[in-house]
Every structure is written in C-alpha cells, then in structure tokens.
Design goal:
With about 675 residues, this protein is of the alpha+beta class. The chain has 13 helices and 36 strands. Among the domains are: about 140 residues, Rossmann fold, CATH 3.40.50.720; about 250 residues, Beta-galactosidase, Chain A, domain 5 (Distorted Sandwich), CATH 2.70.98. The strands form six sheets. An eight-stranded mixed sheet has the order 13-12-11-7-10-9-8-14, covered by helices on one side. Strand 22 and strand 23 form a beta hairpin.
Length: about 675
C-alpha cells in the first residue's frame, strides 16, 4: 500500500478536522508540512501535531516538499489559486468548500485536472456517511418508489461577533452568505440524492446582520424526475438544526442533525394506513455505521488515489451543486426562474456567483463604461486570458496575462496589440526572427544564469546557446481591476525558474491616467515591484554584461512593426539615430511609418526618476528591426539581496503622427514624475 505525503495549507480551526482525519489514516499517509500566512500559528500547529516542517508560502512548500496530496483549509477567496497551483505541482487536492467563487473558475479547475491527471475533491463529507450512501442505493433501485417532495433546511445561528472576522460576510472574500458557506453541505447532499435539477426560483435577504452578503435564502427547485423541493438557508435561527426530508411513494426518510450525522440520525416513516415490512427491511440493511466526517471522505479519496480514479465529490461531480447555488443567486437578483444549463459564457453570473465583479477577483469578465475624465473607456476582462482596453469602442491595447507561448520562449505577460487613437498598430508579436519578442513586456535576458527573455542565452565563451534555462513570469492573481477615475489594475506574479523554483514575487501596477484625443495620444503607466524570495543573491544582467558589445537589452522591451524599419530615433540633449544605443537619457522616442495608409506614429518611453541608475542606458535599433529597451543593467549587472525589493516605473506614450523634439521635450518636462 502506498503511503502518501500530505501537506496542509491553512492551520485555523477547520484544520483540526483535517489533522484528526490524517491521524486516523496514519498507516496510509505521512503529514510532511503545514502552511499558514501567520508564522506563529503555523509553528504552534506543527509542533502540536508533530509536523516536521512548516512554511508561510504555499509555492515554496510545493517546490520543496512535492506532496502527493494537499489539503486546503484556508478562507474561501484563496482556494482557487491554491487549487490550481497544487494541481499543477502534481498533487491531488482535498479543499474546503467552496472550491471557488464562479463557474468559470470551477471549469478552469476541471481543465487543469484534465491537463495534469490529478484531481481536486471538495470537502462534501455529508455524501460519505453510511446513511447517505445507503439511501442513494435505495433511490437508485426505487425501493421506496419515486421521490416526490423534498425539504432541505440549514437553519443555523451566527451572531454579529462571528462576522467581525475580516474575511467573513464579504463577496470578495467569503463568496456568499449561508447559501454558499453554510447550507452548501446539506444542499449538496440533497441534490446528490435526488438527481439532476431542472430549474430553481429563489429569494435572498440581508435581514439582520450588518454584512454585504445575504443572511437568509429560500428556494424552490424542480428535478428532472418531476420531484419538487424547498430549501431554506439561514444564519438567523436561534434553535439550530440541519434537516432533510425525502417523501417517496412508499415512505418518508428524514435526517435531523447539525454539523455531522451517523445512522442514528436517520428515520423512516410509512403512511398510517400502510405498514409494508419489506420497506422497513430494506431500510434496515445498513452494513456499516460510518459518520459524515472528514475521515470518512479522506479514506475514500485515498482509495481513489490508489486506483488513480476520479474521486467522489471531484470538480466534475460537484459542478451541479455549484451551478444550482449560482442559480439561486441569479434568480434572487433577477426575479426569474433559472434553468439548469442556462448560465454560460457571456452571462455575468458565470464569472461571479452573484453576477458581480469583486475587486481583486480572478475569473471574472468585466465591462465598465467609466474612465479617465469621464471618457467612454471600457475594460473587457476575458477569464484566464487577457484584459482589453477600448476608447469609444475602439481597441487601444490588449494585456495578455496568461500567455500560451512555448516554454522555450520564456512565457510572460505582454501588451499586444498596442494601437494609437487613430487605430494604427505599433507593436509586433512573435516575429520569425525572434519569436520571443512579444509586443511590450518586462523581460530579463540573464538573471543569475536563468533566462526570462526567451530563446538562447549568450555565453561569454560560446556566444548564443540554447540552454535548459528558460524560466517564466506567471500571473497568480488580480488584486484590483478598476475603470473609475482612471484605468488601474494591480497584478501579482511570480518569476519561476525552469526547475520550478520561485525567485521573485512581483506586484505590477498598470494604469491609463491620460487619454487625450485633442493631443492625439494616450499613455500607459507601468510600475513593477520585484522582491527576491530565492534566499540567494540575484544578479540582473544582459548579453553585454557577458561580453557581447551593445547588446544590453532587458527590463521594459518593445518590438515595433516591421514597417518601422529605419524609423526616427530621438533622445534627450540632442541624442538621435541608432547611435543612441548604450547612451543615457531620461527618455527615448521612436517614430515610424505604417503600411497601408502611410501614416506615422510616435512611441515615447520615459524612464521615471527613482529607477536604479537613472537615467538609464537604452538598447535601441531601427535596423534590421525596430525595438527599444530601457535597461538598468545594460553593461553592468545589478544585484538584488534576498528579501530586497527592486522598484521600476515607466511611462509609455502612444501618439499619432511624428512628434518633434520640441513637442517631446515639452511633454516630458510636464509629465516626468518621481518614482
């Protein structure tokens, strides 16, 4: 029998149920690590339960421990990212409910399961008690006739103090009220037993607690087998109870419990005028008395791992429940009955359980019509792909944050296409001469020997050599996506080496604070905060630091259209032409012409004060192709100590026509800002 390596992420109160289950399975598992963002808590938990190693960073734990199974017991808003990261590391997952906060995220988890061959199972332990398993079999064999009526009540009590915990009661962090966080166990069992649901009508309310989400919900559901059911979820009920009732043609079966159950919590009743001994006999055919518990579910999950089989309560199995809960919220908001299968891509409820975007939520598709100076600016967020900026419905740029480029090209987020207000495209994507040139991006050619640029690496003695050293810059979460007074997005990323080690944690700010139709330009403000989490000194270098003259590219890099060949290059203090390469300047402008209409466009790059080694040297070419890079490591490596942060900031101005030197200098003087 395989003995599995297990890690627990989250060491709050619910983790005690996980560790208890693991201890009861000690012949089959070895708990190798625990993770929590609170150092004191994870250390105390680990010492209490003899867990050999503890971490405050889940990615670091996965890289070092390589667990077979990860059990997630953290607040709801963290589940999705932890699930994806764990599956991609090769681990199976057992995660507390809810797995995520949208059907879109759930579908992506299913996709990652298919890609990795590992599975995520939701903690829906009520499915696993022997009473439920027995009733499921009786329903399938129609031992009591057809199901006709069902009742599902989760009537619990949570006082005002309960919601003082910061993440509770908010859409962005808890994901919902009792519908999502409390009644989900009973509803999942209810739906699992009665089969496919057809339609739901619901009402929700926030009647007494001072919270964003609902504190009560009521729903009526019709099943495909024509049965009808009523559902109540409440945190306002002083006498707490979880109650399920199933009325069949021949008998009623009831479950009365609170947080768990055993066989004794079930009872069966027959019509007063009918006492069919065969019905009672079938009900009494219990072969076990297993509680609805984490231990019972964990045992079956380990069996599935032994057999490499999809576990019960996997992502695919729980999707009907998640879709049903989404249907409750949609029905309550719209006042309409929701049909199963009607919530798909393009429906705001597909991208968030309540049909709204929570700030910092991944997995939503958002459209906002507010923008700089009240202009008609729109952001469109396509899940797990890109964010597009439009002005008066004209595309200005697309930021692809989950690129599909090959590993050898060092995948990283990028802007492409970039367009002027006149609609002319000023970026190029994956040209045949350098496939890793991707519009506008942050790239480093040599980071302590690791290539975050793409393609081959320049070696002092050998020239360019394709090595097994292509890392990637990976999006992990959106902290903010807003389009109010200005477009402002805050992103978290990790710089991951080819071996899977995380070297840098990054916070990236993307802002569009100025769109000027009269002036014929718009600007993109970019700032990057890179923290060295590698526990080693990191050196930012370039081919020039390795010995190749005038090849000091790195940091912010732009590849221009092919028609920009032989374009005009301008820099400060009379700097002009391709000889600008390797020269210092607080700004650099590139003007090129467009095929098709003969129009010209200017792209202005401003190196902000406060950047290291300001003003930086520039890598720039207009032959054999157009490119610009503002390089703080052009010919001298830049070192970053462990836990030290590197801050970079740039403004990119995209303008119509050819800008004169005077026009550029006036703009820079008015807009150059401290970092």
């Amino acid at each position: 029998m395989t003995r599995y390596r297990v890690a627990i992420i989250g060491t709050g109160s619910i983790a005690n149920l996980h560790i208890q289950a693991l201890k009861e399975m000690k012949e089959r598992v070895e708990v190798v690590a625990a993770v929590d963002v609170l150092p004191e808590r994870v250390e105390a938990f680990s010492r209490q339960h003899a867990i050999p190693r503890f971490y405050t960073d889940a990615a670091q734990m996965l890289e070092r421990e390589h667990p077979h199974l990860v059990q997630i017991a953290t607040p709801p808003n963290t589940h999705y990212d932890l699930i994806i990261r764990s599956l991609e590391s090769g681990a199976w997952v057992l995660c507390e409910k809810p797995l995520c906060t949208s059907l879109a995220e759930l579908d992506h988890i299913l996709t990652v399961e298919q890609q990795t061959g590992t599975y995520c199972s939701s903690v829906f332990q009520w499915r696993f008690g022997s009473g439920s398993q027995h009733l499921k079999h009786l329903i399938q064999t129609e031992a009591f006739g057809r199901p006709l009526v069902g009742i599902c009540q989760t009537t619990w009590f949570r006082n005002h103090a309960y919601y003082q915990v910061p993440w509770r009661g908010k859409w962005s962090t808890e994901g919902g009220g009792p519908t999502m966080g409390h009644g989900i166990h009973a509803m999942d069992l209810f739906l699992w037993l009665l089969g496919d649901w057809e339609e739901v009508s619901a009402m929700t309310g926030t009647l007494d607690r001072e919270i964003e989400v609902e504190d009560v919900s009521l729903a009526i559901v019709r099943f495909n087998n024509r049965a009808l059911g009523s559902i109540v979820n409440s945190v306002l009920s002083p006498r707490e109870e979880t109650y399920l009732r199933f009325d069949f043609q021949k008998a009623s079966v009831e479950l009365t419990a609170l947080y768990s159950y055993t066989n004794k919590h079930w009872r069966i009743s027959q019509p007063p005028s009918t006492q069919d001994t065969s019905v009672v006999a079938r009900w009494q055919e219990f072969s076990h008395d297993r509680p609805a518990s984490h231990t019972t579910q964990l045992a079956q999950l380990l069996d599935s791992m032994d057999q490499r089989a999809r576990p019960l309560a996997s992502t695919r199995d729980v999707r009907p429940t998640f879709e049903f809960i989404t249907g409750i919220y949609k029905s309550a908001v719209t006042g309409r009955t929701v049909q199963r299968g009607s919530i798909g891509e393009g429906d705001p409820f597909y991208y968030h359980i309540a049909g709204q975007r929570s700030q910092g939520s991944t997995g939503s598709r958002t459209v906002s019509s507010k923008g700089p100076a009240g202009m008609k600016t729109t952001l469109i967020h396509t899940l797990h792909d890109a964010i597009e900026l439009r002005y008066e419905n004209q595309p200005l740029c697309t930021y692809v944050y989950e690129p599909k480029t090959p590993a050898i090209e060092s995948p990283k987020p990028y802007f492409h296409p970039l367009r002027t207000l006149a609609g002319n495209e000023v970026s190029l994507f994956r040209p045949h001469d350098h496939l890793w040139h991707i519009g506008l991006s942050l790239s480093i050619a040599n980071l302590s020997g690791e290539n975050f640029w793409g393609g081959p690496t320049y070696l002092r003695e050998s020239g360019y050599v394709q090595l097994d050293n292509n890392g990637r810059i990976q999006h992990t979460a959106w902290q903010e996506i807003s389009c109010d007074d200005e477009v402002h997005c805050v992103e978290r990323l990790k710089w991951i080496t080819h071996t899977g080690a995380t070297w840098i944690d990054e916070e990236r700010h993307i802002a569009v604070s100025e769109i000027n139709p009269e002036g014929g330009y718009w600007c993109l403000d970019l700032s990057f905060r890179l923290v060295n989490v590698s526990q080693q000194l990191l050196a930012f270098g370039s081919p020039t630091t390795e010995g190749r003259p005038n090849a000091g590219y790195g940091s912010l890099f732009w590849r221009g259209p092919r028609s920009f060949l032989h374009g005009r290059i301008l820099g400060a203090d009379g700097l002009e032409g391709p000889d600008s390469i390797g020269k210092q300047s607080p700004w650099l402008a590139f003007t090129g012409s467009h095929d098709g209409n003969g129009a010209q466009s200017t792209v202005l790059f401003i190196d902000q004060q406060g950047n290291p080694r300001y003003p930086n040297k520039w890598f720039v070419r207009n032959d054999p192709y157009a490119c610009v890079s503002c390089s703080f490591m052009f010919d001298e490596s830049y070192t970053l100590q462990p836990d030290e942060a590197l801050k970079l900031a740039y403004r990119v101005v995209i303008g119509n026509g050819e800008w004169s030197r005077l026009q550029i200098e006036e703009y820079v003087a008015a807009h150059l800002r401290p970092h």
